Amino acid sequence: MTTTRLERASAGTADFLDQRTGIGVAVKNFARKIFPDHWSFLLGEIALFSFVVLLGSGIFLTMFFVPSMTEVHYEGPWAPMHGVEMSEAFASTLRLSFEVRGGLLMRQIHHWAALLFMAAIVVHMLRVFFTGAFRKPRELNWVVGFTLLILGLAAGFTGYSLPDDVLSGNGLRITDGVVKAIPIIGSYMSYFVFGGEFPGTDIIPRLFTLHILVVPGLILALIGLHLFLVVLHKHTQFPGSGRTDGNVVGFPLFPVYTAKAGGFAFIVFGLITLMAATIQINPVWNYGPYDPSPVSAGAQPDWYMLFLEGSLRLMPGQTEYVIGGYTLSLNVLIPAVVIPGLLFTVLGAWPFLEAYATGEKREHHVLDRPRNAPTRTAAGVAIVTAFFILVLAGANDLIATHFEMSLNDITWAFRVLFFVAPVFAFWITKRICLGLQRRDRDLVLHGHESATIVRLAHGEYIEVHKPLDEHELWLRVNYSSPRPIEIEPAEDSRGVRRKGYRADRIRRRLSEFFYADRIEPVSAEELAAARAHQAEHHALLEGGGRHSAALPAEESTSTTVDVEATSDR
Amino acid sequence: MSTNDTPRHDELVVTHAPEGVVDPGLPPHQPRLGDTDPKASKRSERIVAALFGLSVLGSIGVIVAYFAFPPGESVSSIQQSNMFLGLGLAFCFAGIGFGAVHWAKSIMNDHEKVEERHPQRSSDEDRAAAVEVLKEGAADSGIARRSALKGGLITALALLPLPVALPLIGNVGADWDVSKFRHTMWRRGTRLMTDPTYRPIRAADVTIGSVVHVIPEGLHHDELESDQSFMDEKAKAVVLLVRLDERDLKHTEGSYHGIVAFSKICTHVGCPVALYEQQTHHLLCPCHQSTFDVADGAKVVFGPAKRALPQLPITVDDEGYLIATDDFSEPIGPSFWERVK
Ligand code: HEM
Ligand code: FES
């Protein structure tokens, strides 16, 4: 066997490494590890690759950005700002935009990547939520991902404030107002954050350290843990024939997954760069340096902060109280702390909540189709709806000017919608899920409509139904449909009240909330009966004397009969 | 990694299908065009190579753009530089990306493979062994029999954060004198100056309906005392001055011939309030739309703020210039816990 120079060289390197690290074992175990393929598994990758872009462009920016609030007079090329007093932070941002070649591009890449990063995180989280990928054994990884979401918000917030322009300065001022509203220690917290009174001269350097060291460092470490857990658990897969909780079906890490994911990384880089090249973002030279006096209407924070903005806008001011001489600003605390706190707590704790209601202990590696978990799906849609209403409320002034409506009316509408819309969304989503389950039942029992109407010998018209093939059948029958858990009665056989009954009752309620509304899955008997029925029709058709006429699809009528839901209220 | 006792992955598999329906296994593999047609396969290869070539062109484009389009002094010149550099770089990335993905999809082996899973928990023997190891270690350390050791270690560790946190917390809030929230630069006799032009304001020059952005005299870089910071003082002292028809004013206290001055810092969370509507005498905060009625002591008429904007009491001096007669009667800006104490 002849070996080329390249082969010999790589064998030499491999030998050198393996003698010192034993890396051969790792290569053997990991190089052909299987990863399932689905477009929705790319969402987390978009987040990962956007973060890589953030690191790269961020390092470029640190070379030129000066995190200082020392006041200077601008003397650079941007004429409208000549002689204007500004912080070094703002001056260096102008320098990046006007004097550093590629500096503006890197700024715009960095900002677009930040927006995409957050969007990808959120949509990725929704994918995990709606498919039930957070179930055992992945609850911990859900918590890791959830922490990453919070850290992403922190990264965005600290970064947005750095250029020290009018908009970011006003954002900081709002932060100061929210911090001051904290009971008892609010004033001190404000001093803690700003190193004295607002704005002081410490906040930009402090945010800078958080933004380029602490937060990205934590994100990096947690991304490492996140991906380690993904490999440890092996990725989940969508349901389908041949895919079970005991296997994983897909493509090997090397070469297919490497090429696809690696290639996809470059596509994400390319997409972000294309956006940065063609769509302007944060043109701080138009805003001017921070000054506590001027304002601009219609200024919007980055999208992932809009929900807080909207929440603050909706809360009526009457809820500030003075109790015993101390001021309790519920008009700030509820929208800025309590509401986001509730939304995030429910999200963060969801896997544990659901496991508690199900009482199930087994591992899940095959994903749920969202319809097969109606309450979860409905709750997810409700949370998204609440979030979306707050985002819209954060743009209520733009909506008002755009549609020429009264701002007060819009605000009132959103106040009502914030409570009504999630409930409605919950209800309708659950209906839709149960409806889809019913449709699955029909398909399993009667097959697909073929749009062919046939007249039988005795004059009856029937539509020919095509039975499902075995793969589709499996997909539509092989899912779990839990019932509410049973608990032991309040009193034991001797009539003594049982300890722990109250906790059980709460659990039973939760479980009922989750699973009381359900569609009974197809049973073996039903399936057998349906098959017998089909065979009968088939025999009649084969039996001759038939006039068949294929009707155009839109004229055909379905002959399927609705199956009663078992305990559907 | 796998053990050779019972195939543990079987423990994981749970079937919910009705009896009689069995898993038919993976659907058969669908061949791609290139798997059967060598010409299609060759074409894919050429496409991939061309995409990589596109990336090379992008790199060259960036180098050309770097020299050809300096950022310059105008918005259009920086945008031009930005666009050409950016488009080049985008091609540079996307060429590699689409090339690699097309390679993977059209040329690489696309037969799905199956790998077994194993339950996450370790086996009972391993667990028992782990407990054993820990017990041995604990016995070696002797901690179980010596409670003084345990107590000492826990106390030492519990106190450890203190010496680190103390200097941090001691310094991070500067002098921690939060009473500064209560005062601004305004004093009896301080002239009202225009912002940013810094000129005194003659009452007679303020026409009905006009709005003036105001800062106190002395809030200027050349005039500040050494312990005053321009930004900190300005953040508290900014004022909005409006002249109404005197008959429209519900209270005339602190006003001068229909001229009223209010803190510009919103009592909600502190944005500068500056959108004045002449017809209604309403002042709107652009941040969360709290609306204040200037004719009625800047009371809140809508939105998330609760309190009226604090009023700056004004009059004129001998020369007819507007001056303050005092500081604001209460702390300006957002509420805080001990605000009215
Ligand atoms: C972890 C995710 C990150 C997010 C979400 C994020 C977000 C942001 C945002 C929104 C801005 C304002 C951008 C502008 O208008 O120019 C910004 C600025 C900045 N970021 Fe990041 N960033 C992240 C990571 C990083 C990293 C890792 C670094 C450095 C190693 C970095 C360095 C900077 C610098 C120096 C600025 C100020 C530059 C300027 O605006 O001119 N960032 N960041
Ligand atoms: S800061 Fe003025 S309404 Fe919120």
Q: Quote the distance from N terminus to C terminus of chain A.
A: 74 Å
Indicate the CATH topology of the largest domain in chain A: Cytochrome Bc1 Complex, Chain C
Which structural category fits the helices and strands of chain B?
Answer: alpha+beta
Rg of chain B (CA only)? 38 Å
CATH class of the largest domain in chain A: Mainly Alpha
Q: What's the architecture of the largest domain in chain B in CATH terms?
A: 3-layer Sandwich
What general outline of chain A do the C-alpha atoms trace? Answer: globular
For the record, the count of structural domains of chain A works out to: 2
Oligomeric state of this protein: heterodimer
Task: Summarize the structure in words.
The complex is a heterodimer of chains A (569) and B (341). In chain A, a hairpin with a 2-residue loop joins strand 5 (320-323) and strand 6. Chain A folds into two domains: 33-368, Cytochrome Bc1 Complex, Chain C (Up-down Bundle), CATH 1.20.810; 431-489 and 499-555, no CATH class. Residues 545-569 of chain A have low confidence and may be disordered. In chain A, the strands form four sheets. A three-stranded antiparallel sheet of chain A has the order 8-7-9, with no helix packed on it. The longest helix of chain A has 40 residues, at 407-446. Chain A is mainly alpha-helical and 569 residues long. Chain A is built from 19 helices and nine strands. With 341 residues, chain B is α+β, with helices and mostly antiparallel strands. Chain B has two domains: 33-107 and 142-169; 179-324, Rieske [2Fe-2S] iron-sulphur domain (Rieske Iron-sulfur Protein, 3-layer Sandwich). Chain B contains eight helices and eleven strands. In chain B, strands 2-3-4-5 form a four-stranded antiparallel sheet. Chain B has a four-stranded antiparallel sheet with strand order 6-7-8-9, with no helix packed on it. Chain B has a two-stranded antiparallel sheet with strand order 10-11. The longest helix of chain B has 32 residues, at 75-106. At the A-B interface, helix 5, helix 7, helix 8, strand 4 and helix 10 of A face helix 1, helix 4, strand 1 and helix 8 of B. Residues 51, 54-55, 58-59, 61-62, 65, 93, 96, 107, 110-111, 114, 117, 152, 155-156, 159-160, 162-163, 211-212, 216, 219, 282 of chain A line the site of protoporphyrin IX containing FE.
